[in-house]
UniProtKB/TrEMBL annotation:
One of its GO terms (biological process) is regulation of DNA-templated transcription. It holds the Pfam family Sigma54_activat. PROSITE patterns: SIGMA54_INTERACT_1 (PS00675), SIGMA54_INTERACT_2 (PS00676), SIGMA54_INTERACT_3 (PS00688), SIGMA54_INTERACT_4 (PS50045). The chain crosses the membrane at residues 12-30, 50-70. This is Sigma-54 factor interaction domain-containing protein. GO terms for molecular function: ATP binding; sequence-specific DNA binding. Residues 128-352 form the Sigma-54 factor interaction domain. Keywords: ATP-binding, DNA-binding, Membrane, Nucleotide-binding, Transcription, Transcription regulation, Transmembrane, Transmembrane helix.
Length: 447
């Protein structure tokens, strides 16, 4: 059916509404008067005199409303046209819906709100780059959850900024003046994790020569960030659950529990729900952690953030370093399995090689290869089949990428793990665990 639209100016519409109300009151008055007359009673007032007065009064009210309320809004909308930051409503595709005053106002307000959202995010989170819609959603979630005391679960692939977000939640919480302590559960050997978390008494085990406070005690009053919680042994999970629920911990080798006041933020790049279903993660702990969860999107799902991230990382290295459009195109088309961390490392190594401009030749070998393979076209819908057209398992693909990145870093560092870890932006222990996981033979890379 054809959509018929009439465009009436607000200057006409509002007074007419008021006049309509006045006419309605006249009808009511008239009916009341005729009722009195039919009962041979005197009407109380001259109907038409009052009616005319009422119409005039409502018309004036309507005009005053237009003058004092609509005029400033209209002036604001007209001024936004000159500012350039708000798209001219007359040139947008949504013109059909913006022919009337209200449509135009709504469009300008939408755009202004969007802009304010970006400005606010930049002010509130100066360390976190992200203007994409998904990242603005993440900022909103941080703002909501930070002042609360609830436990937060951050999920997302490696290098998506989980630790950065955890710090930001802490900085925007009431605990900001207290410590933020982070512990990577995957980087600490199983036998040592409990004593790292809960501390130990002198003589609790061989080598425990002094009493040592654990991360939970150190985080007292503040926030404890449990990174890669999916790698925590089940036994330790039970103790962490108790610490979350009862605010008490026991140092290894201690007899008495101690009370701590800690807010927990956990992070993982694994599917904890699935792990819990398969008995690889405690269900009760999963539910306790999953009170408020934030999903950090992979970089390939927010490619519009790449130029901003590149600018930030290059400025951190050398202030006057620029990037060629070809190199930027390569950055935009790469899949970034290592996400922001990988982008940061790629730019850092390019900054070392480049003089004043980053060219494709300065970007890491693996990146150039990926760009060439993907045909350097931006594909926001992930490729879900491989070259042979077969479905590719996401976990397997991530694992392959991780393995390739580690191998590349080891190759570049001549098999020196400290250097390779620095290139990948991870701790040496974390690299060691990953090398073990992928069964990589370091000897193959020694030069
Ligand atoms: N949105 C962002 N803006 C600026 N820097 C970012 C952003 N996201 C990540 N980074 C940077 O990327 C690097 C990796 O981030 P981070 O350690 O927080 O990731 P992660 O998800 O915790 O990784 P992992 O799962 O491997 O521990 C850090 O140097 C961080 O500062």
């Amino acid at each position: 059916m054809k959509d018929i639209r009439f465009n009436i100016s607000l200057y006409v519409l509002i007074p007419v509404i008021f006049a309509g109300i006045a006419i309605l009151s006249i009808i009511v008055t008239y009916n009341t008067t005729t009722f009195y007359l039919s009962k041979s009673m005197d009407p109380q007032w001259p109907v038409f005199g009052w009616g005319v007065l009422l119409i005039a009064f409502t018309l004036i009210c309507g005009l005053l409303i237009v003058k004092f309320m609509i005029d400033p809004v209209k002036r604001f909308v007209i001024r936004t046209k000159d500012l350039g930051v708000v798209k001219n409503v007359h040139t947008t595709a949504r013109i059909a819906s913006a022919d009337d005053d209200m449509g135009r106002f709504a469009m300008v307000f939408d755009q202004v709100t969007e802009l304010l959202g970006k400005v606010e995010a930049r002010q509130l989170f100066p360390d976190i780059v992200g203007q994409s819609k998904v990242m603005r959603g993440v900022f909103n979630q941080i703002v909501k959850v930070a002042p609360r005391e609830s436990t937060v679960l951050l999920t997302g692939e490696t290098g998506t900024g989980k630790e950065l977000i955890a710090r930001s939640i802490h900085q925007h919480s009431k605990r900001q003046d207290h410590p933020f302590i982070a512990i990577n559960c995957a980087a600490i050997p199983e036998g040592l994790l409990e004593s790292e978390l809960f501390g130990h008494e002198k003589g609790a085990f061989t080598g425990a020569n002094t009493r040592k406070p654990g991360k939970l005690e150190l985080a007292d009053g503040g926030t404890l960030f449990l990174d890669e919680i999916g790698d925590m042994p089940l036994e330790t999970q039970a103790k962490v659950l108790r610490a979350i629920e009862e605010n008490t911990i026991e140092r290894v080798g201690a007899i008495k529990p101690i009370t701590v006041d800690v807010r927990f933020i956990a992070a993982t790049n694994r599917n904890l729900e699935k792990m819990a279903e398969n008995g690889l993660f405690r269900q009760d702990l999963f539910y306790r952690l999953n009170v408020f969860s934030i999903l950090l999107p992979p970089l390939r799902h927010r490619r519009e953030d790449i130029p901003l991230l590149a600018e930030k990382f290059l400025n951190q290295r050398k202030k006057d370093l620029s990037i060629s459009s070809e190199a930027l195109q390569l950055l935009m088309t790469n899949d970034w399995p290592g996400n922001v961390r990988e982008l940061k490392n790629a730019l850092e190594s390019a900054a070392v090689l480049a003089d004043d401009k980053i060219l494709p030749v300065h970007l890491p070998f693996s990146l150039k290869r990926n760009g060439a393979i993907s045909g350097t076209t931006i594909n926001t819908n992930e490729t879900l089949s491989d070259a042979a057209g077969e479905k590719v398992d996401l976990d397997r693909r991530i694992k392959d990428y991780e393995r390739r990145m580690i191998a590349d870093a080891l190759r570049q560092s001549g098999g020196v793990q400290v250097k390779a870890a620095a290139l990948l932006g991870i701790k040496e222990r974390s690299l060691w665990h990953r090398i073990k996981k992928h069964q990589i033979d370091i000897a193959d890379f020694k030069t």
